[in-house]
Write a structure and sequence with these properties.
single chain, 161 residues, alpha+beta, Immunoglobulin-like, 7 strands
Length: 161
C-alpha cells in the first residue's frame, strides 16, 4: 500500500522547538514577500545564520519606538543603520580575526560574516526623529513617533452580547 505522507525526519538532525521553527518559517515567508534573496531562507536551516542574526527587542511607548539589538563582536564602524521609508534597516559585518598559523581547531562556534535585519515600524519618521547609540555590543535606536501616529490609535469597545 502506498501512502502520500511526507518522509520521516532524519534521526541525524536535531529537533527544533516548535515555536523557534514556526518563527523561522514566518520570517522566511516575510522575507520572500519583501523580496529578499532566496538563499537567506535556506541558511538558518543549515545552522549558518544562527549567531549572525542579531537578537532584537522592540518596545513602544506613547511617544517613540525603541529597538535594541545585541551585536557582540561588532564595531560601530562595521554597522550601517538606516531608514528606508517606514522600515528600520540594521546591517553590518563581524570580521574573522583568527590567526590560523599554528592551531588545529577542534571546535569553532563563533560566527563571522554579514547580517541584515529589517524592522517595519508602521509609520515614516521625521528626519530628525531618530537617535542611535552603540556601546559594548548593544545597539539602541529610538525613533520618535509623528504626531499623527500618536493620535491615530483609538480604543474599540467590544460588546459581549
Amino acid at each position: 500500500m502506498q501512502t502520500n505522507l511526507p518522509p520521516a525526519p532524519s534521526k541525524r538532525s536535531e529537533p527544533q522547538p516548535f515555536f523557534e521553527q514556526l518563527q523561522q518559517e514566518m520570517e522566511q515567508l516575510f522575507d520572500r514577500f519583501r523580496g529578499y534573496p532566496p538563499i537567506a531562507g535556506a541558511l538558518p536551516r543549515l545552522g549558518v545564520l544562527d549567531s549572525l542574526r542579531p537578537a532584537i527587542d522592540m518596545a513602544e511607548t506613547d511617544d517613540a519606538v525603541e529597538v535594541t539589538a545585541e551585536i557582540p563582536g561588532a564595531k560601530a564602524d562595521d554597522l550601517d543603520v538606516s531608514l528606508n521609508g517606514d522600515t528600520l534597516v540594521i546591517k553590518g559585518e563581524k570580521s574573522d580575526e583568527r590567526n590560523e598559523n599554528d592551531k588545529n581547531y577542534h571546535l569553532v562556534e563563533r560566527s563571522y560574516g554579514s547580517f541584515r535585519r529589517q524592522i517595519p515600524l508602521g509609520f515614516t519618521p521625521a528626519q530628525d526623529a531618530v537617535e542611535g547609540h552603540f556601546v559594548d555590543g548593544i545597539l539602541r535606536v529610538s525613533i520618535a513617533k509623528p504626531a499623527e501616529v500618536k493620535t491615530a490609535n483609538r480604543k474599540i469597545e467590544i460588546n459581549t452580547k
